[in-house]
Amino acid sequence: MDLKNYISDVPDFPKEGIIFKDISPLLASPEATGHALELLSKGLHDIKATKVVGIESRGFLFGTLLAQQLGLGFVPVRKPGKLPGNVLRESYALEYGTDHIEIQADRIKQGELVIVHDDILATGGTASAACRLIERCGGKVVQCNFLMELGFLNGREKLKNYALHSLMHI
Protein backbone atom coordinates (compact mmCIF):
# COMPACT_ATOMS: atom_id res chain seq x y z
CA MET A 1 0.00 0.00 0.00
CA ASP A 2 1.43 3.36 -1.03
CA LEU A 3 0.51 5.79 1.74
CA LYS A 4 1.34 8.78 -0.47
CA ASN A 5 -1.92 8.02 -2.30
CA TYR A 6 -3.73 9.00 0.91
CA ILE A 7 -2.13 12.45 1.27
CA SER A 8 -3.78 15.39 -0.48
CA ASP A 9 -2.04 18.61 -1.46
CA VAL A 10 -4.02 21.74 -0.64
CA PRO A 11 -2.47 24.77 -2.35
CA ASP A 12 -2.34 28.16 -0.61
CA PHE A 13 -3.37 26.82 2.81
CA PRO A 14 -3.13 28.11 5.48
CA LYS A 15 -1.64 31.00 3.52
CA GLU A 16 -0.63 31.79 -0.05
CA GLY A 17 2.45 29.94 -1.27
CA ILE A 18 2.09 27.01 1.17
CA ILE A 19 1.11 23.55 -0.04
CA PHE A 20 -0.60 21.92 2.93
CA LYS A 21 -0.23 18.15 3.24
CA ASP A 22 -3.71 16.92 4.26
CA ILE A 23 -3.73 13.57 6.06
CA SER A 24 -7.56 13.45 6.26
CA PRO A 25 -7.83 10.89 3.42
CA LEU A 26 -5.38 8.62 5.27
CA LEU A 27 -7.38 8.95 8.50
CA ALA A 28 -10.64 8.24 6.62
CA SER A 29 -9.31 4.86 5.51
CA PRO A 30 -9.11 2.25 8.27
CA GLU A 31 -6.81 0.17 6.06
CA ALA A 32 -4.37 3.05 5.41
CA THR A 33 -4.46 4.13 9.07
CA GLY A 34 -3.79 0.56 10.22
CA HIS A 35 -0.96 0.16 7.73
CA ALA A 36 0.64 3.46 8.78
CA LEU A 37 0.37 2.50 12.46
CA GLU A 38 1.96 -0.87 11.77
CA LEU A 39 4.87 0.80 9.94
CA LEU A 40 5.30 3.49 12.62
CA SER A 41 5.45 0.93 15.44
CA LYS A 42 7.76 -1.49 13.64
CA GLY A 43 10.86 -2.15 15.74
CA LEU A 44 9.72 0.05 18.63
CA HIS A 45 8.62 -2.80 20.91
CA ASP A 46 12.27 -3.65 21.60
CA ILE A 47 13.51 -0.22 22.68
CA LYS A 48 11.86 -0.26 26.14
CA ALA A 49 10.29 3.21 25.84
CA THR A 50 7.69 4.17 28.43
CA LYS A 51 6.07 7.21 26.79
CA VAL A 52 5.08 8.61 23.43
CA VAL A 53 5.06 12.40 23.16
CA GLY A 54 2.72 13.77 20.50
CA ILE A 55 3.13 17.30 19.17
CA GLU A 56 0.04 19.49 18.78
CA SER A 57 -2.14 18.93 17.04
CA ARG A 58 -1.88 16.40 14.27
CA GLY A 59 0.82 14.56 16.20
CA PHE A 60 -1.88 13.60 18.70
CA LEU A 61 -3.72 11.49 16.12
CA PHE A 62 -1.11 8.82 15.51
CA GLY A 63 0.76 9.55 18.74
CA THR A 64 -2.10 8.22 20.86
CA LEU A 65 -2.61 5.26 18.54
CA LEU A 66 1.11 4.50 18.65
CA ALA A 67 1.15 4.68 22.46
CA GLN A 68 -1.83 2.33 22.63
CA GLN A 69 -0.29 -0.09 20.12
CA LEU A 70 2.96 -0.21 22.11
CA GLY A 71 1.32 -0.26 25.56
CA LEU A 72 2.91 3.08 26.52
CA GLY A 73 1.70 6.28 28.13
CA PHE A 74 0.93 9.32 25.99
CA VAL A 75 2.06 12.88 26.78
CA PRO A 76 0.89 15.90 24.76
CA VAL A 77 3.15 18.80 23.86
CA ARG A 78 0.94 21.84 23.26
CA LYS A 79 0.89 25.49 22.35
CA PRO A 80 1.19 27.88 25.31
CA GLY A 81 -1.73 28.19 27.69
CA LYS A 82 -3.35 24.85 26.81
CA LEU A 83 -1.98 22.69 29.65
CA PRO A 84 -2.80 23.07 33.36
CA GLY A 85 -0.34 23.00 36.24
CA ASN A 86 3.41 23.37 36.22
CA VAL A 87 4.61 23.53 32.62
CA LEU A 88 7.95 23.90 30.92
CA ARG A 89 8.14 26.10 27.83
CA GLU A 90 10.58 25.93 24.93
CA SER A 91 10.91 28.34 22.04
CA TYR A 92 11.77 27.58 18.45
CA ALA A 93 12.49 29.71 15.40
CA LEU A 94 9.99 30.44 12.69
CA GLU A 95 10.75 32.00 9.33
CA TYR A 96 9.85 35.38 10.84
CA GLY A 97 10.06 35.28 14.65
CA THR A 98 9.64 32.60 17.28
CA ASP A 99 6.94 30.38 18.73
CA HIS A 100 6.67 28.22 21.85
CA ILE A 101 5.45 24.82 22.97
CA GLU A 102 4.86 23.46 26.46
CA ILE A 103 4.80 20.19 28.38
CA GLN A 104 3.53 19.42 31.86
CA ALA A 105 6.72 19.22 33.91
CA ASP A 106 5.79 16.04 35.81
CA ARG A 107 4.66 13.86 32.88
CA ILE A 108 8.15 12.64 31.95
CA LYS A 109 10.21 11.16 34.78
CA GLN A 110 13.97 11.11 35.15
CA GLY A 111 15.49 8.44 32.91
CA GLU A 112 12.32 7.61 30.96
CA LEU A 113 12.80 6.59 27.34
CA VAL A 114 10.52 8.58 25.03
CA ILE A 115 9.35 8.35 21.42
CA VAL A 116 8.43 11.69 19.82
CA HIS A 117 5.72 11.67 17.18
CA ASP A 118 4.40 14.29 14.78
CA ASP A 119 2.66 14.05 11.46
CA ILE A 120 5.25 15.92 9.43
CA LEU A 121 8.91 16.84 9.65
CA ALA A 122 9.37 20.18 7.91
CA THR A 123 12.04 22.53 9.27
CA GLY A 124 12.50 20.49 12.45
CA GLY A 125 11.97 23.43 14.79
CA THR A 126 8.95 22.09 16.64
CA ALA A 127 10.29 18.55 16.98
CA SER A 128 13.65 19.83 18.16
CA ALA A 129 11.93 21.99 20.80
CA ALA A 130 9.87 18.96 21.93
CA CYS A 131 13.08 16.93 22.33
CA ARG A 132 14.60 19.70 24.44
CA LEU A 133 11.49 19.76 26.65
CA ILE A 134 11.71 16.01 27.20
CA GLU A 135 15.38 16.30 28.12
CA ARG A 136 14.64 19.17 30.53
CA CYS A 137 12.14 16.83 32.24
CA GLY A 138 14.90 14.23 32.59
CA GLY A 139 13.77 11.95 29.78
CA LYS A 140 15.78 10.54 26.89
CA VAL A 141 14.47 10.68 23.34
CA VAL A 142 15.00 7.28 21.72
CA GLN A 143 13.32 8.02 18.39
CA CYS A 144 11.54 10.77 16.49
CA ASN A 145 8.73 9.37 14.34
CA PHE A 146 6.90 11.11 11.48
CA LEU A 147 4.29 10.14 8.92
CA MET A 148 6.08 12.23 6.30
CA GLU A 149 9.19 14.30 5.83
CA LEU A 150 9.63 17.30 3.57
CA GLY A 151 13.28 16.68 2.74
CA PHE A 152 13.80 19.97 0.90
CA LEU A 153 13.32 21.85 4.21
CA ASN A 154 16.25 20.01 5.87
CA GLY A 155 14.47 19.38 9.18
CA ARG A 156 16.51 16.22 9.65
CA GLU A 157 19.56 18.42 10.31
CA LYS A 158 18.00 19.84 13.51
CA LEU A 159 17.36 16.28 14.74
CA LYS A 160 20.73 14.77 13.77
CA ASN A 161 21.41 13.68 17.37
CA TYR A 162 18.31 11.46 17.45
CA ALA A 163 17.18 8.29 15.72
CA LEU A 164 14.64 9.37 13.13
CA HIS A 165 11.99 7.46 11.19
CA SER A 166 9.69 8.87 8.50
CA LEU A 167 7.22 6.73 6.57
CA MET A 168 7.10 8.99 3.52
CA HIS A 169 9.68 11.31 2.01
CA ILE A 170 8.20 14.11 -0.05
TrEMBL record:
Location(s), subcellular: Cytoplasm
SUPFAM superfamilies attached to this UniProt entry: PRTase-like
Top EC class of this enzyme: transferase
GO cellular component: cytoplasm
Keyword Cytoplasm applies: yes
Primary residence: cytoplasm
Gene Ontology BP terms: adenine salvage; AMP salvage; purine ribonucleoside salvage
Span of domain Phosphoribosyltransferase: 40-148
Oligomeric form and interacting partners: Homodimer.
Family classification: Belongs to the purine/pyrimidine phosphoribosyltransferase family.
Function text: Catalyzes a salvage reaction resulting in the formation of AMP, that is energically less costly than de novo synthesis.
Protein name, as recorded: Adenine phosphoribosyltransferase
Organism: Leeuwenhoekiella nanhaiensis
Gene responsible for this protein: apt
